[in-house]
Design brief:
Layout lengths: L5 H32 L4 E2 L2 E2 L12 H7 L4 E4 L1 H5 L6 H5 L5 E3 L9 E3 L7 E5 L18 E7 L13 E7 L9 E9 L2 E14 L2 E12 L2 E12 L4 E20 L2 E5 L5 E23 L16 E22 L5 E22 L5 E25 L4 E21 L13 E17 L5 E18 L2 E19 L6 E12 L3 H5 L14 E2 L8 E14 L3 E25 L2 E26 H4 L6 E14 L15 E10 L5 E10 L2 E4 L4 E5 L2 E13 L2 E8 L6 E9 L2 E9 L4 E9 L1
Parallel strand pairs: 6-8, 24-27
Antiparallel strand pairs: 1-2, 3-7, 4-5, 7-8, 9-10, 9-37, 10-11, 11-13, 11-14, 12-13, 12-36, 13-15, 14-15, 15-16, 16-17, 17-18, 18-19, 19-20, 20-21, 21-22, 22-23, 23-25, 25-26, 26-27, 27-28, 28-29, 29-30, 30-33, 31-32, 32-35, 33-34, 34-37, 35-36
Length: about 750
């Protein structure tokens, strides 16, 4: 596993940031001199009053600058820049955002390096439908992405690391129909994607019809090395496992939106998000038993020599978003929200295992089905208090129902876990009320104060008995912006917040997930109905300097103090099918994390008038964390890297309608002491992407891109020391270069 001196990188990052700050001051001075040197417009020698008319949504930079609670917005230009095939690849380039998976395969989206559900993901400001997968969402269905580092009262405070709100296509000021065809190629396998958006208007009704049809053919290969060693140094197991899988997936996404404006000024909006996915896969696993290190008397027959598997998955998900905006006297308004969601998924898998003589050893059949339904309602009343103050109050209610059935049997029809075949039902209820006050105190100061109470109740029933879990959290939230006098482009931000992370349904009441090669490094997974929510107190500070129309240099820092941290603990348990290693979530105590984040993006022509038409983007983050009840030195939060960095540029060629761009994304290796007995590590991640955009004419353009050009293997380690035995698993996952060609047409 490669190593990098974190202190050297910190010094370099600080030096770069100081240099950028110096450059930004030079830009500010140049802008001031330029403004002073411009003579007023005249006609026949007489001065003419100049009036600038602007309309529509504010620019991304203006929204960020004017937001008291610190919101960053990334619109279609940013989403389209590299021609990515999924929204996860877009997010990995944004400041402070990383992906948990290996390059090219997406993974859990994390802000500030914090995994395990610390980052709140919203779809149109609401919780996404059950089974929603970021990797399956096409960027063509997204209008913009909003990132909030601190929670606000009108959204759930389940955002210890921050919130990412994905806003679906809303058709704002869109006039043209758009057709896009993309072909993504990985190892010679084509994955086409066709999308169409069509706006329209009929009287007071405006609409936007948007949809995507896609197919993918991923192939994955993982090489694992497993070794069990006793405390006296005797090796009990020495194995190599080669896992290969191929999958064919295809799906459909639809995001139609309707908006009706009444004569009195009221507006009714409704949008649905529908996604249907089908996939078929097959796999092969070859286990090699190495005997050189294992004493002959201790050698055991391998669990299998060759295993073949087939799987079929079908999933359909829908989420409806609606709101009615009613204008009241005195510029007040009432925004009433309503929605519903539903999801169903079915998964069938069969695995057959053979010995060295190709004789059948065992056959496992797993079938599962999940049905989920939800309804939600909410509202926000907003009223101005004078010219510079706005008060809002509201509520949120969400009810959910889930039914899950899982059957897992061997070739003799015997269940592989005690609850196999039982139905699990779960009901959840989430209630929240909030109030917030946003106030421009003076020309320099703006403040935000919010209060939110949120209660969650989960109940479930199955053959083993009923389960009930209930929790509530009260979250005070404070944000402030100070605009430095005499420097309209500089401002300071500060936030003091209370946030939390509630245990999800899977961690509370999940049916067991059974591992084929059960061991301490490949345990079964189950839930814990007694989990409490994690509570966090957070402090955020930031300095921002704005450059020209779209540039910014910022330095920010944060601290999160977390109580009742949830971690998974691996133990050997007696089950109905015999002793097995089981991973169970538990509240283990107190943790703290802090970090610094640097960001700089600007156009070189704003720094040098005769400079090249190059846009630069860069960000760097450094994180520290510690968990009290786990010994150091690597007692960090789950999967949190120490450092991440991103560097990108775009060059618009003179005389040619061609734009070239490149981006390098880097995440440091991790080594985490996840419990008293378990240590987990990952290798560094480097993803180098390039693209070229040719604008054929005003209505056509062609984009060619290559992602993950380095194609480095993703390495991992998992070591568990317990009961006088050290069980180690080392993995190597191949990654691949992904080529993409996208044709776009407006008509």
């Amino acid at each position: 596993m490669s190593k990098l001196n974190p202190y050297a990188f910190t010094y370099v990052g600080t030096y770069v940031c100081m240099a950028l700050l110096g450059a930004s001051n030079a830009i500010a001075q140049t802008e001031t001199r330029g403004a002073a040197s411009q003579a007023p417009a005249t006609v026949d020698g007489k001065p003419v009053q100049q009036v600038t008319v602007t309309g529509g949504r504010a620019s991304d930079v203006d929204e960020r600058r004017n937001s008291v609670a610190g919101k960053q917005v990334f619109s279609r230009e940013e989403l389209d820049r590299n021609g990515d095939s999924n929204i996860g690849d877009v997010l990995k380039r944004l400041p402070g955002v990383t992906l948990g998976g290996r390059p090219g395969r997406g993974g859990e989206v994390r802000m500030r390096g914090m995994g395990n559900g610390y980052t709140q993901i919203l779809l149109n400001g609401e919780r996404p439908p059950a089974g929603f997968s970021m990797e399956s969402l096409s960027p063509d269905q997204v209008e913009r992405v909003e990132i909030m580092r601190g929670p606000v009262a009108e959204n759930s405070a389940q955002a210890i690391a921050g919130t990412i709100n994905i806003v679906l296509r809303d058709g704002y000021q869109q006039r043209d129909r758009q057709f896009k065809f993309t072909d993504t190629i990985e190892q010679g396998r084509h994955a086409p994607n066709i999308s169409l958006t069509a706006p329209g208007k009929a009287g007071q009704l405006t609409y936007l019809l948007s949809g995507s049809l896609f197919q993918s053919l991923p192939h994955d290969q993982t090489l694992s090395y497993n070794r069990d060693t006793r405390a006296d140094g005797v090796v009990l197991k020495d194995q190599n496992v080669l896992d290969q899988s191929r999958r064919t997936a295809y799906g459909l996404q639809l995001t139609p939106r309707l908006s009706y404006k009444f004569e009195g000024g009221d507006t009714l909006n409704f949008q649905t998000f529908m996604m249907s996915i089908r996939s078929n896969g097959d796999g092969r696993s070859d286990l090699g038993q190495n005997t050189g290190l294992v004493p002959p008397a201790l050698q055991q027959a391998p669990e299998y020599v060759t295993a073949l598997s087939q799987s079929h998955y079908a999933g359909s998900f829908m989420r409806g978003f609606g709101n009615w905006i009613h204008k009241l006297d005195g510029a007040a308004k009432l925004d009433v929200k309503f929605g519903f969601g539903g999801g169903r998924s079915d998964n069938d898998a069969r695995r057959t295992q053979y010995d060295s003589a190709a004789k059948l050893q065992d056959r496992f059949t797993d079938t599962s089905s999940t049905r989920e339904h939800s309804v939600n309602s909410g509202g926000k009343y907003t009223a101005p208090l004078g010219r510079n103050q706005s008060l809002a109050a509201g509520w949120d209610v969400e009810l959910g129902h889930r039914v899950e059935n899982r059957v897992s049997v061997d070739q003799n029809g015997l269940p592989r876990f005690a609850e196999s075949g039982d139905n699990l039902t779960a009901d959840s209820r989430r209630l929240a009320v909030y109030a917030q006050d946003e106030w421009d105190i003076s020309s320099q100061w703006s403040g935000y104060g919010g209060l939110r109470w949120e209660g969650i109740r989960t109940t479930s029933g199955r053959a083993g008995g009923d389960i009930r879990n209930q929790s509530s959290v009260f979250s005070p939230l404070l944000h402030a912006v100070y605009r430095i006098p005499g420097s309209e482009k500089d401002q300071l931000r500060a936030s003091l917040t209370k946030s939390y992370k509630a245990a999800n349904v899977q961690d509370l009441i999940a049916l067991p997930s059974v591992a084929y090669l059960n061991s301490a490094t490949r345990p079964d997974r189950t839930g814990n109905p007694n989990l409490k929510p994690e509570l966090a107190t957070g402090l955020d500070l930031a300095y921002e300097h704005y450059i020209g129309r779209s540039g910014i240099v910022s330095v920010s820092g944060f601290i999160r103090d977390i109580q009742d941290l949830i971690r998974r603990n691996v133990t050997l348990q007696d089950t109905a099918t015999g002793p097995r290693w089981v991973s169970t979530p538990q509240n283990i105590g107190h943790a703290r994390t802090k970090g610094i984040e640097l960001e700089a993006k600007f156009q070189l022509q704003e720094l040098f008038a005769q400079g090249p038409a190059v846009d630069l983007r860069s960000n760097y983050s450094h994180f520290w964390s510690s968990v009290d009840d786990i010994p150091g030195p690597n007692n960090h939060l789950d999967a949190q890297p120490k450092q991440t960095a991103n560097l990108g540029m775009d060059y618009r060629m003179k005389g040619l309608p061609l734009t070239l761009g490149a981006n390098l994304n880097w995440t440091a290796p991790t080594l985490i002491q996840s419990s008293l007995t378990q240590e987990v590590g990952t290798s560094r991640k480097r993803s180098f992407d390039v693209y070229g955009l040719w604008k054929i004419d005003p209505v056509q353009q062609l984009r060619i891109s290559a992602n993950n050009l380095m194609a480095e293997s993703a390495l991992g380690s998992n070591i568990v020391n317990t009961n006088g035995l050290s069980q180690a698993a080392y993995t190597s996952n191949q990654t691949y270069v992904v080529w993409s060609v996208k044709y776009e047409l407006k008509f």
